[in-house]
Amino acid sequence: MLSGLKNQLMALVCVTGGNGFIASWLIKRLLERGYTVRATVRDPGNLRKIAHLQNLPHASERLELVKADLLNEGSFDTAVEGCEGVFHVASPVNFVPDNPEEDLIIPAIEGTLNVLNACAKSNCLKRVVLTSSMAAVSTQTLAKSGFIVDESCWSDPDYCKERNRWYALSKLLAEQRAWEFAKEKGLDLVVLNPGFIAGRPLQDSLDVATEEVLNFLTGQDSLTKDSAFAWVGVKDVVEAHILALEVPMASGRYICAEQVMDAPTLLQVLQKIIPGHAVPPKYVANPLPPATLYKVSTEKLKKLGLTLGPIEDALKETVDYLLGKGLLPKEIQT
Ligand SMILES: NC(=O)c1ccc[n+]([C@@H]2O[C@H](COP(=O)([O-])OP(=O)(O)OC[C@H]3O[C@@H](n4cnc5c(N)ncnc54)[C@H](OP(=O)(O)O)[C@@H]3O)[C@@H](O)[C@H]2O)c1
User: Fold this and answer.
1) DSSP secondary-structure letter at 136?
2) Which of 130, 154, 179, 296 is the S-S candidate for 230 at Cβ 3.0 to 4.6 Å?
C-alpha cells in the first residue's frame, strides 16, 4: 500500500506535537530522509519552543509549522490535508497531574479523535502512525519474574485508577479509542508502544523522561524508584516510527523497548556512565529497593526491520546533556 513512499522524495507527512522530545527527533530524521514535514505546535509564535526545529538541516526548504491544539475540534484538519502519512505524537506527558481528567485523559482521547477525524476526511492519506506507550501495555504487575510482555498485553484500567497511574490510563484509553475509530472509518493505523525513552533532548526544555533521569539521580521523587520499566533510546524510537510508516506490511501494535531495569539496575548502569561513578548520597543511606524484573518481546519489531541498540548509549546521551546543562550536582559527578 505504501510501497514506493520511501523513495518518494518530498512526500508530505504531518507530525503532531512537533516541538516535543520524540517529535523533534522524528522531524530531524524525516527531513534527513527527504520528506517534507508539516509539524503542528500549539504556538508557532513561541520562539523558545520552535527555534530548534527551524534550525534543523533542510528545515528552511521542507518544514512547515502549523498551529493546532488537541482540545480544539477541527484543529488538525488543515495540518493533515494533503499528507500521505500522519504521525500522531502529541499527548500530555505528566506523571503528577493536578486534575487527571482535564490535564491528561480528555486531551489524550479528544486529541487523538480530533487528529483521526482529520485523517478520515483526507482523500490522499495512506497511513497514520500513533505514538502510544508501554504504559498502555503493561502498567499492572504482569510482573511475575520472567513474564514476557508482548503486543497482546493491555494495561488494566482499574489498576491504573487504584494506583493513580493517570498518565498510563490516558495512553491506554486514547489507544483503545484510536483502534475503535480506525476500524469504524477504515483507516490504516499502526501503533508504536515505546518504553521509557532516553537520549539527548533537542528542544529547549526538559521533557518528562529526561527529568525522570535527573530526579532519579538527585534522589527526588521519581516513578523509576518504585517499579521496573522497559527502556529504549530515542533514535531507535524514531526509526521504529519511520518503519511503521514505510513498511507496507506493518500492522497492529509494536512494542519498542527492551531492557527492563528496576531502580538498582538503573543506578548501576548510570554509575558506569557518570564520570567518577559516584553513588548519589541519598542511596548510600537508603539503598533502592529491587522490583520484579519481567521481559519484553521485541520479536515483532525485529520483523519490521529494527533491532534496538544498547540502552547504555542512549542513557549516556541523557547524562551528557544533563552534565552539559549543569543540572547534575557536583557530589554525584566526582
Ligand atoms: N518520553 C517517553 O519516555 C515516552 C514513552 C512512551 C511514549 N511516549 C509518548 O510519546 C509522545 C511524545 O512524548 P515526549 O516524551 O516527546 O513528550 P513531550 O516532549 O512533552 O511532547 C509532548 C508534545 O505534546 C504536545 N501537547 C501536549 N498537550 C497538547 C495539547 N493540548 N495540544 C497540542 N499539543 C499538546 C506538547 O506541546 P507543548 O510543548 O505545547 O505542551 C508537546 O509537543 C507522547 O504521546 C507520549 O505519551 C513518551
Assistant:
1) G
2) 296
Q: Which residues line ligand 1 (CB under 6 A)?
A: 17, 19-23, 42, 49, 69-71, 89-93, 107, 131, 133, 171, 194, 196-197, 207, 209
Separation of 314 CA from ligand 1 center, angstroms?
19
Candidates 255, 246, 262; CA nearest to 301 is: 255
Question: pLDDT digit string (tens) for 4-24?
Answer: 454 455 799 999 999 999 999
Does residue 210 or residue 3 have the better pLDDT?
A: 210
**Total domain count for the chain?**
1
Residue with the smallest CA separation from ligand 1 atom 30 is 70
In the prediction, which pLDDT does 8 show?
A: 54
| pLDDT (mean) for 36-41 | 98
Domain that holds residue 105: 5-332
Q: Residue 3's pLDDT is what? A: 45
Nearest Cα to Cα of residue 85 among 315, 197, 247, 198? 247
What separation in Å is there between the alpha carbon of 94 and the centre of ligand 1? 9
For 119, residues 6+ apart whose C-beta sits below 8 A from its C-beta are 80, 86, 125, 128, 187
CA 23 to chain centre: 8
The atom number, within ligand 1, closest to the CA of 92 reads: 27
Task: Output the CA 84–ligand 1 centroid distance in Å.
Answer: 22
d(CA 17, CA 195): 19
Give the pLDDT confidence score for residue 1 in this predicted structure.
Answer: 36
Q: Which of 217, 233, 238 is nearest to 333 (CA)?
A: 217
CATH code for position 80: 3.40.50.720
